[in-house]
Amino acid sequence: PAADLDTDAQVRANDRGHVFHSWSAQALIDPLPVAGGAGSTFWDYAGNSYLDFSSQLVNLNLGHQHPDLVAAIQEQAGRLATIQPALANDVRGDLARRISEVAPEGFSKVFFTNGGADANENAVRMARLVTGKRKVLSMYRSYHGNTSTAITLTGDPRRWANEPADGSVAHFFGPYAYRSAFHSSSPEQEAERALEHLEQTIVLEGASTIGAIILETVVGTNGVLIPPPGYLPGVRALCDKYGIVMIADEVMVGFGRVGEWFAFQAFDVVPDLITFAKGINSGYVPLGGVVISDRIASHFDTVSFPGGLTYSGHPLACAAGVATFEVFQRDGILERVRDLGDRVVAPRLAAMAAKHPSIGEVRGMGLFWAIELVRDRETREPLVPFNAAGADAAPVAAVAAACKKAGLWPFTHFNRVHVAPPLVITEDELVRGLDIIDAALDVADEYVS
Ligand code: PLP
């Protein structure tokens, strides 16, 4: 793309003067003005383009400007741009039916929201109303959104400054074999001990007070933590034993990220409520929702559900969702994600781990991977501390800068680099991106003691 420095300056001036940004000290940021994007690439006004290995916020599953999604939104805008949620609408119903068809047996209904946080808010609301129990358990090392209950459920530093927003939340440790909270020495032992810990938490918090357990099926931003065999079925069994609703937060991993419609489908478990957003329509128009098991949905057959949103099931968002289903099915997206993950990413990351002393562990599935960086492989001391900022975060910031300089937009979080490109990335682009990360990790190796 040609440089256009006048527009660059104008966009910067409006942004710096008037846009208040998420999660930031406003005077300490310098957002990159973006001129456009196509497929797995976006570009700035200075003539640089970036291979998008973060899919923006791990939502852009079908890439920038997918022609089918753009056409569906345009067509819908020409037909009926909006309609309120109490009326029935063709695309809204079409999308809800398609979602229930790829969900497990017995999930007929979908409640649409604007995004992931309010999907989780409403799932928790349903669980509380159905069980008559208010407390919710969630994991440390998790993210569930930034509204009041969702941020309280969150198990990372983004919760800290917002406390206490919802007094009825308690946290537990999930499985994380590489940094086990349970001193376990195998994935099986990690699952077993994590389940013992969860059961003790339930007993000590009081099963009679707990309405729901919410967890990310595969923990996303907090580390691409794949549950060890048996863990999720074990959580299901505890929920059944103690009369607790199991909520799977599929906001980041649903709709193809790990090669499944819903990630839990790879783990032999069926939750009671499924929350989704992001990949449902690649974020072209904000959309999220809750897929509701018939048992829970039927509670509201004759009792009014006390929740709603002006834009619930917005036709433009739903039209992009319907187009997403058509593309996934026509282009075999789930199969391609599994294939690229197994055949291209897994072996390449294993080779990088063998070569770079800064890599402590690589893990993932489909097109969702983490490279965990350490100063010392023996002690597993993270390359940067938990919640590192400023000078403490410099080593990972240097890796990110090297990626950007080479034309790749990375996803980094604390001591990790994640690999989360659009699911439509070509194999050549994928290999080129992995080449860039491989080279950038030379920078991390310099910090190894
Ligand atoms: N849940 C998970 C697992 C997420 O990754 C996110 C966003 O990153 C959310 C919930 C919140 O979604 P939203 O930002 O659409 O509210």
General description of the model:
The chain is an alpha/beta fold and 449 residues long. It has 2 domains: 5-65 and 332-445, Aspartate Aminotransferase, domain 1; 68-331, Aspartate Aminotransferase, domain 2, CATH 3.40.640. 39% of the residues lie in helices and 17% in strands. The chain contains 13 helices and 16 strands. The strands form 3 sheets. Strands 4-10-9-8-7-5-6 form a 7-stranded mixed beta sheet, sandwiched between helices. Helix 8 links the parallel strand 7 (210-216) and strand 8. Helix 3 (67-79) packs antiparallel against helix 10 (315-331), helix 11 (333-355) runs parallel beside helix 13 and helix 12 (394-405) runs antiparallel to helix 13. The longest helix has 23 residues, at 333-355. The radius of gyration is 22 Å and the shape is globular. It starts with a helix and ends with a helix. The model has no long low-confidence stretch (mean pLDDT 98). Pyridoxal-5'-phosphate (PLP) binds at residues 57, 115-117, 120, 143-145, 216, 220-221, 249, 251-252, 277, 288. Pyridoxal-5'-phosphate binds next to helix 5.
